[in-house]
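[step 3/7] fold_predict: job queued, chain A
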Amino acid sequence: MMKKVIENCDIILEILDARDPLACRCKNIERKIQSLPDKKIIIVLNKIDLIPMENAYAWQTYLRR
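[step 4/7] structure written:
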């Protein structure tokens, strides 16, 4: 079912918990999406109000790479 959803979408939102974004990521799915033509992933940090702003900026820099 996930494959069908990805095929039908142009943009996929990946919601990550700002307290530990790496623990929430699914690298396998990200790689599958990136291997398909014309697919984009937008990463959204949820619960950002629960971490210091410096950490939020650091995660933003890290995740943009």
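[step 5/7] annotate
Residues 6-64 form one domain.
The chain has one domain: 6-64.
exit 0
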